[in-house]
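Quick one:
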Amino acid sequence: MTPRDDSPPASAKSGTSQPPKDVVVNIDEIPENGAGQSMTDGMAVSFVDEQDCGFFGPSSNIALMRHILRAVDTKRTHHCNQTSLTPASEYSAYEGGLVSNLNAFPAASSDSQKAGANLLPPDEVMQRLIRAYFDNTGLLFPYIHEQEFLDTYERFRASGFRGNVRRTWLGLLNMILAMATCTSCWEDSGSETTFEESDVYYRRAQELCHTQMFRGTTLETVQYLLLTSQYLQGTHKSVHTWTIHGLAVKAAMSIGLHSRDIASKFTPLQQEIRKRTWFGCILLDRSLSLTFGRPCAIPEEYIRLDLPKPLPVPISNSDEVHKMSTAFYNASMIMGRIIGSLYGSNLGCEDQSSDTATMTSMIQFGQELSDWQNSLPQHLGLRSVDNMPDNTDENIRDPLREKFRIILTLRYLNVQLLLHRPIFIRSLGTLLREAKTPYRHAGSINSMHANFDRVFVQVAENIIDIIYTILTRPDHGRHLIGAWWFTLYYAFSAALAIFGSLLISLGAEAGNAGRLESAKRYLGKTCEALLKLSDNNTLVLRCVKFVQQLLRIVSAWG
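Output:
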């Protein structure tokens, strides 16, 4: 191995050990016809441009925030004496908060954009990060075959990192390093420094694969695009993740990952990895459809393959890990069907269905979620704030299993929140039409509305309670909640639900003092939990500031 060393040769031995040096590797050149390659980031679009022309449909938090802010503005208009209320216009800067992290990190200078695509960190750093990836993201999204990847790495390492290596594999390696840095390393410190470090790996991978990502003719390229899209969800470039995800889906289809017929041409192991990569695309597709409020890129009728099977790998927890990832996938598919049925597939073209039809669908999906929950093995059962593990609980000694249980629980609760949102939105809409009179149906419909609204609030409170408990108890911590950006998304969605439900209830029933105090308590817990999530992440702090604004409004009402 020949590491790069820019320092002058020492004339005498030093008494202190030198830090390990970066590794310089040889990269295969890409033969190209025509003009040379531009190093410009072809995905770079400004957030302002995206806001001007972007579509954020019914399931997005942006759409929910707009409903709530219009209701706040209407209430302010009809209660002019409450001068402490904040005009809705002051919130406009926050409307994209959970979809694009505008200015979450300082813009890189032109010199820093030259990432040094042929550089890698020291071997011991790479091995630690690779292990962290496969112990974390690689378990929930197991579309990269661990042993095959490690074998390739060992051959590369045995050559002293001097042998030529495929650009796509090296790009995939850099994305694994990036993902591990911004997830596993963040769990230890919560520092924004980890994002700056991970961005170096991301830019190296981008420089390596900016041509291959548009060709999309190999499984490795699809995996690279898929992992890049996942990574971008949690960075200041998160708005780009939609574009990269589209490339991943098209690349997957171009090599037939969706096809059962073509699968027979591959070995059983290759078939499973191809299938896992396809299902990885589906999982991310449903997640992005939810957060961006945009139609799925992979329609339900395109999903014909059977679920992946456990791989014959020599690790004792293979079957348990498979059950975990399968449960996560099934919950995500129910979420996708809810978006299709209750949100018009996020197309923005649906006529509003009747209350009866909407509530019938909600009951049916509620049964699906109940069946999903009952199908979970006992050791993977969902958590609640009343049965969180403590220092004496054996599950704390098995943090991987406990982490999956928390991830499954938060995903389930967020799907429940999504399921109950349509009735909540209708109630908010009525506030806009009849601001001076409470929203009421006659008879059983009114009773069902009240029940759904009550569940909506309870689910939001459960989400906040669990996140708060994990992040504030010394025997728990960030390592139990998975990717930080999903935790932020869940907590922020729940806070919006708490505040919005208060808008509906004020003036409609007795006992509002109790509702006001409860809302204050949960909005306060949200702020405290998010500050425990990170007290120096710009996006987290922007969301905390927004929730604090909501808390001030509630205090003014009280």
